[in-house]
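Lab notebook page, bench 4
Experiment: in silico fold of construct C2
Operator: M.H.
Input chain length: 282 residues
Purpose: comparison with the prior construct
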Amino acid sequence: MAVRSFKATTSTLRGTKLEDRSMLEKKSGPRKLSKSKKQKSGRNNQGKITIRHRGGGFKRRIRIIDFQREKFDIEAKVLGLYFDPNRSAHLALLQYTDGEKRYIIAPRGIKAGDKIISGEKVDVLPGNAMRIKNIPSGTIVHCIENRIGKGATFGRSAGQEIVVQGIDPTGKYVQIKLSSGEIRLVPADGMATVGQVGNEEKLNVKLGKAGRRRNLGWRPVVRGMAMHAVEHPHGGGEGKGVMGTAKDIWGNRIGTRTRKNKRTEKLIIKRRRSPQRPFAKK
């Protein structure tokens, strides 16, 4: 996948870089593999806004994706690659030898006509899925299960790659390294798909204008420094002003770690470190 640049005939097009979707199928996929999606615009069951800056955008349908890959030892043929408006990665439409069709997250390098398969232990080829305990150390994978049978949890967005580092001495877990730098354990009997997620140049996309952002369902964001003092901790004052420690609209300090999940603490071997805060506490 690549990005498309444009001749700078306008100031908007000068920095615009959009996805090149020429390799995707022009027609929509099977209707039965999708369902309608009701827009909530960031509101809860009381109609109150609980997530700001959401609303509008094009109407979408939810694609039903096979994250479990439980059809063992049945070969499937890739019919084509498809666009999914609900995620950054593209989808691959499979047709199994028994006639069933399913969507999966499209791995990098896969194309129409390729054959893939899932099972307990299969060939280490892009798109094949197997138990992560049977995947050799150093292999790049994606769509990893965190709970057996639940379906893929880790490595589902565009360009994601996870490295298998080896099985735990107990034999119950496999050690993996995520793209964030975090090293953790996942169940050894969980499923994983070989290869990197496709559409890896998604991070180079620049929408170029506010209208494209609105079409994706995002509403405008106002800087706190541009507000009145009663509306935001950064607001008020003469001129540009100094905001001091960055805070959100409710006065909470930005950057504070909020993760509280004691159940999975034992599974994390090394925490991720953001480039902006390399020496931050756990």
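Observations: The mean pLDDT is 92. The CA atoms of residues 246 and 255 lie 9 Å apart.
Next step: discuss at group meeting.
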